[in-house]
Specification:
The complex is a heterodimer of chains A (444) and B (285). Chain A has 444 residues and is an alpha/beta fold. Chain A has helices spanning 18-32, 80-89, 103-114, 132-147, 156-166, 211-224, 239-248, 266-270, 287-294, 323-338, 345-355, 358-374, 380-388, 394-415, 427-435; strands spanning 4-8, 36-42, 49-53, 57-62, 94-98, 118-123, 150-153, 173-175, 197-202, 228-233, 255-259, 275-278, 298-302, 316-319. Chain A has 15 helices and 14 strands. An 8-stranded mixed β-sheet of chain A has the order 3-4-2-1-5-6-7-8, with helices on both faces. Chain A has a 6-stranded parallel β-sheet with strand order 11-10-9-12-13-14, with helices on both faces. The chains are: A alpha/beta (444), B mainly alpha (285). The A-B interface holds A 126-130, 150, 155-158, 160-161, 163-164, 170-177, 208, 210, 212-213, 281-282, 302, 304-306, 308-312, 320-323, 325, 355-356, 364, 367-368 and B 14-17, 23-25, 27, 31-32, 34-35, 273-274, 276-285.
Chain lengths: 444, 285
């Protein structure tokens, strides 16, 4: 069964990042499988309106500017008319929101459910429970997930976290991991320095990514092994700490700080290394280690969040989030490298190429779409009942918001009736005309 | 047949790179196995909490004494000369006690510095009192009393009670108290009244907490005796101003010393701290 899918998020091209590339790659693979996919996001500077990306991927850059942290101002009701219009024009039957940080995604899912359109939500990050921002965000997530048909998480740890935060049934959450474009991250032996062992670090230099751990590990490793050098890509507030370490221990020829590395230049930096070091303090999936493994590097990482689930033990050395444990694991990896006991770069690349593919992600996502399309529709009363379960006081507030949204939808239907809305051209029909030939496929 | 089927089914592993033959939304028995609840809770003992609550009560005593002194001066029961002499004497005694318990040398340079500071303060204060008195003279009494109330409340809220919470701000707390004293000083008849009240406020809100803290560190047993002493002083001084106020004070005392600890302990079983592999890691040394 072919679906019309609307991907919604505040994070999309021209921004570069994990969520952005996830949406893009997933959309492309779903288009390959014959579905119709559009993307809805906010305006980026002057980039507003409708743009087309490759393969007819239509992107709606809504004329709303982001206010804080790349997200639009959450107003709940003001996005209803424009989202309703888009969903009707494009005959969307599934709305897929990404990232709990994205106000646009959560609002669009809410409006989709008000219009009885099926909704899926993908969670990309881990959250705490104890501080004030987490408590508020988790309440909002409970509200969103109370209406959603199905949720997708990128790792098992992420699933446990989402189930606890959002108080949903675990069988309503599917675990579909991220993937990498392995054709971009290919290993090559010519860039590597054969005399030395190169350790590559590629992350933002912030506290969350363990920059302090990195600063304490570097001098220890450099003193233990004279032929080890570090290449550090990325910038951030903790860059000063690394530079201080370099000054203090006189390691100018052994540490290279590259600053921010553009997305297209990442592979060039990775292939210069033998070992990839990741010191994050929290990660739902960590796509960086898979990219590094695809380039043939041995990975050494802190065992936090979803990282232990991503790579098999012969491709990754896990360590506790402490300097001593990281140094121990790095020693083991360096020893293995010296004795040539590591998996060959081509072997590692082939493994990643076969295991983490976007086609696999699209296939599994399609199963989710098929399942929710077949499910019976939930009545307004049932939905309000589910919102009520979100809390003693919050439940009543959510019911009020949901009911008000429903009334506003009726108002929109009266002002701009459904029959007066023109349907947009389906790009799939255009593509079939272009490629020619008889096509017995029915367009849904 | 059934038994061999069970044995051949392997244990589900929490990994993403293996196709384990189950659907994506499969929930294994080991789901949420690594979740731990309420790892770092403290158990509270009622009387220990009551004893510790006197930190808050001490600051409340200061506030009530201050307001009672104002009303006594207003009613001409207390003369400014008497107040100034008494508070100066008590301050000097307190100062001596402070450097005795800190085992400091009696003849170091800091004595000379402190003396200089005191001299400058007294001279400046006395010369600026006419201005201080007229600063808020044009504002109506009701507004003054309302402002004083909120300023003293701010003093209580932002005071440093020994924790390192984000809300603590010593400077703000002291400033609020001094502003309250200036508000009240404008309602008094002469400059002498204003000067003695402001000086008293400084001694009570700036110097007394320092001595209190040092006493708490070196003589923890003294806290209870001090509480009883100050409590009785407050009760007596407030009773001569207004009987309603005494009742309010005693109820407030009961609430903070007995009811709040009981409430805190009653709420402990509802704690629900969730820990698990999703927590941001704490760097171990």
């Amino acid at each position: 069964m072919k679906h019309s899918i609307c991907m919604v998020s505040d994070f999309f091209y021209p921004n570069i990042g994990g969520v952005e590339s996830h949406i893009y790659q997933l959309s492309q693979c779903l288009i390959e499988r014959g579905h119709k996919v559009i993307v809805v996001t906010h305006a980026y500077g002057n980039r507003s309106g409708i743009r087309y990306l490759s393969n007819g991927l239509k992107v709606y850059y809504l004329p709303i500017q982001p206010v804080y942290n790349q997200c639009i101002l959450p107003t709940v009701f003001t996005t209803l008319p424009v989202i309703r219009n888009i969903l009707l024009r494009e005959s969307i039957n599934i709305v897929h929101g990404h990232s709990a940080f994205s106000a646009l995604a959560l609002e669009s899912i809410f409006h989709a459910r008000t219009m009885n359109v099926k909704a899926v939500f993908t969670d990309h990050s881990l959250f705490g429970f104890a501080d004030l921002s987490s408590i508020l965000t988790n309440k909002i997530l409970k509200f969103s997930l109370a209406g959603v048909n199905h949720a997708i998480c990128v790792s098992h740890t992420c699933k446990e976290n989402t189930v606890l935060r959002g108080k949903i049934d675990p069988s309503d959450v599917s675990v579909i991991p991220n993937a990498v474009d392995a054709s971009v991250f290919t290993p090559t032996s010519t860039e590597r320095d054969p005399e030395k062992i190169t350790i590559v670090v590629m992350s933002r230099l912030v506290y969350r990514k363990g920059a302090d751990l990195l600063a304490s590990v570097i001098p220890e490793i450099c003193s233990r092994h004279s032929d080890v050098q570090f290449i550090i890509g990325g910038d951030g507030p903790k860059r000063l700490a690394i530079e201080e370490v370099r000054e203090h221990f006189q390691l100018h020829d052994r540490i290279r700080l590259l600053g921010t590395v553009g997305h297209s230049a990442v592979r060039q930096v990775l292939v210069r290394g033998d070992i990839f070091l990741n010191t994050s303090l929290t990660e739902a999936f960590c796509i960086a280690i898979v990219e590094a493994a695809s380039c043939g590097l041995q990975v050494v990482s802190t065992s936090v969040g979803g990282i232990p689930e991503v790579l098999p033990p012969d491709m990754i050395q896990l360590a506790e989030p402490s300097a001593t444990s990281l140094v121990e694991s790095l020693d083991k990896a360096i020893a293995k490298r010296r004795n040539c006991q590591l998996l060959s770069p081509d072997g590692a690349h082939d493994w990643v190429r076969k295991t983490y593919t976007w086609q696999n992600v699209a296939e599994r996502t399609e199963i989710v779409y098929d399942k929710i399309s077949a499910a019976t529709e939930v009545t307004l009363a049932d939905r309000l009942h589910r919102y009520n379960k979100c809390g003693l006081v919050a439940g009543k507030i959510f019911i009020f918001i949901a009911a008000l949204n429903y009334l506003l939808l009726i108002l929109c239907n009266w002002i701009s009736p459904v029959q007066n809305i023109d349907l947009a051209i389906d790009c799939r029909k255009l593509r079939r005309l272009k490629t020619g030939g008889v096509n017995l496929e029915q367009s849904s | 047949m059934a038994m061999s089927c069970d044995r051949s089914r392997k244990k589900w592993q929490k990994v993403l790179y293996k196709d384990q033959g189950v659907s994506d939304n499969y929930v294994d028995e080991s789901f949420l196995e690594e979740m731990k609840k309420n790892l770092h809770i403290r158990t509270y003992e009622f009387w220990a909490v009551v004893r510790e609550s006197n930190v808050v009560m001490h600051q409340i005593y200061s506030v009530w004494i201050f307001v009672a002194v104002y009303f006594h001066m207003r009613n001409f029961v207390l003369t400014p000369q008497f107040l100034f002499e008494m508070s100066s004497a008590v301050t000097i005694v307190g100062y001596i006690v402070n450097f005795v318990i800190l085992h400091e040398n009696a003849l170091t340079k800091s004595r000379w510095k402190d003396g200089k500071t005191m001299g400058i303060f007294l001279i400046l204060g006395f010369s600026l009192s006419p201005i201080l008195m007229t600063l808020t003279k044009t504002i109506s009494t009701d507004t003054i009393y309302a402002m004083t109330f909120f300023m003293l409340l701010a003093n209580l809220l932002f005071h440093d009670y020994g924790t390192d919470a984000a809300i603590v701000s010593q400077a703000f707390s002291l400033n609020a108290a001094i502003f309250a004293s200036i508000c009240l000083a404008s309602r008094l008849p002469t400059t002498w009244h204003a000067f003695s009240l402001v000086t008293f406020a400084f001694e009570l809100f700036a110097l007394w907490p320092i001595l209190r803290r040092n006493l708490k560190i070196h003589f923890p047993r003294l806290q209870i005796i001090l509480s009883f002493l100050l409590g009785s002083v407050v009760t007596v001084s407030v009773a001569t101003v207004s009987s309603v106020a005494v009742v309010v004070f005693l109820l407030l005392h009961l609430f903070i010393t007995i009811l709040c600890p009981a409430w805190l302990i009653r709420l402990q079983p509802y704690k629900n701290n969730i820990h698990g592999p999703w927590d941001e890691a704490v760097i171990k040394q």
